Amino acid sequence: MNAVHFVITDLDNTLLNNEKKVSLLNHQxxxxxxxxxxxxxxASGRDYQSVFELSKDWGIDSFIDIIIGGNxxxxxxSQSNHLICQNKIPNKVAWKIYETFKxxxxxxxxxxxxxxxxxxxxxxxxxxxxKYQEPxxxxxxxxxxxxxxxxxxxxxxxxxxMNHMKEIAKQLYELPISMMQSSSxxxxxMDKNTNKGSALHIACTQxxxxxxxxxxxxxxxxxxxxxxxxxxxxxxxxxxxxxxQIADHITQYTNNEDxxxxxxxxxxxxx
Length: 271
Prior knowledge:
Layout: E1 6-10, H1 11-15, H2 24-35, E2 39-43, H3 48-58, E3 66-69, E4 74-77, E5 82-85, H4 91-101, E6 107-112, E7 115-118, H5 123-131, E8 136-138, H6 141-147, E9 152-156, H7 162-169, E10 177-183, E11 186-191, H8 196-207, E12 214-218, H9 224-229, E13 232-235, H10 241-246, E14 249-250, H11 259-269
Parallel strand pairs: 1-2, 1-12, 2-3, 7-8, 12-13, 13-14
Antiparallel strand pairs: 3-4, 4-5, 6-7, 6-9, 9-11, 10-11
Helix pairs in contact: 2-11, 4-6
């Protein structure tokens, strides 16, 4: 295993347990990493500001060197308060995605920064916005997307609709975008070159360390590029099959069993 100078982890179902908390053991592992001079970072689909505010609740804000937010759109270096943003989706491209999905039965919304822009809301969509601490702005989406570049656009649907949505998305193959399924009910579109993996390359450059010396943890499809880009990619035991297939290691324990702590303890802290 390469020498590790930087550990970065996804949040949901990876560092966080099922109660959306950082356990005492995971907290101790992060503190010990910092004691050993190892950089620490978080990578999330949430906006970086939301992640930083949540990290205060978890008591780990003082340990953070890097936050990758928006599934790779934002790279925030906390010590210098420096923010780098990757490419947005041009307004005409976002409008085309909207036109393709507007009558499909899913709830369409766009994100810019920590805000959501949508035409209406329902109980499930509102609950999702609360979960990610993203204010909902009710707008005429057609007009908004015609005049604004956006960070990403998302389709919120029921899990049994997801395959249908993916089939519709095939109509967009010529557009300069990438598609990822972030959860059982969320399909997201971003600039084709923007993802957690591309953001990790930028973060490592900012920290002046080779990416081969980075260890990354994740669990699902939106972590695929992160796990693949890192010198050492680690998938959680509770992770998805596609990520397990490309990971260098799979944890012995799940996110609800302190899998992050046990892997760090065995491979980094015991040496």
